[in-house]
Specification:
56% helix, elongated, mainly alpha
């Protein structure tokens, strides 16, 4: 459920934001929502950072190795389906 917030901004900033919003065919509210969403998604939660560290530790401690084999450029860009798609 969306919540309303109240912001105080300078009149000049608001006017410029309205122009930007009009050029993008959106609203100032949508611009603010998008900004806040991008800002909060850019922050890495502590849990993800801890999970990343745990995975890196697991990789380092794993007895299994890939060896010297690496796919060639031709194999990589052959267009054949890959396991990660």
């Amino acid at each position: 459920m969306a919540k309303n917030i109240t912001l105080a901004v300078d009149e000049e900033v608001l006017q410029r934001a309205r122009v930007v919003a009009a050029k993008r065919r959106t609203s100032v509210s949508e611009l603010v929502r998008g900004f806040l969403k991008g800002l909060t998604e850019a922050e890495v939660p502590v849990e993800k950072d801890e999970a990343r560290e745990a995975l890196l530790k697991l990789i380092d401690e794993s007895p299994y190795r890939m060896g010297d084999w690496r796919p060639s450029r031709a194999e990589t860009y052959s267009g054949h389906p890959r396991f990660d798609t």
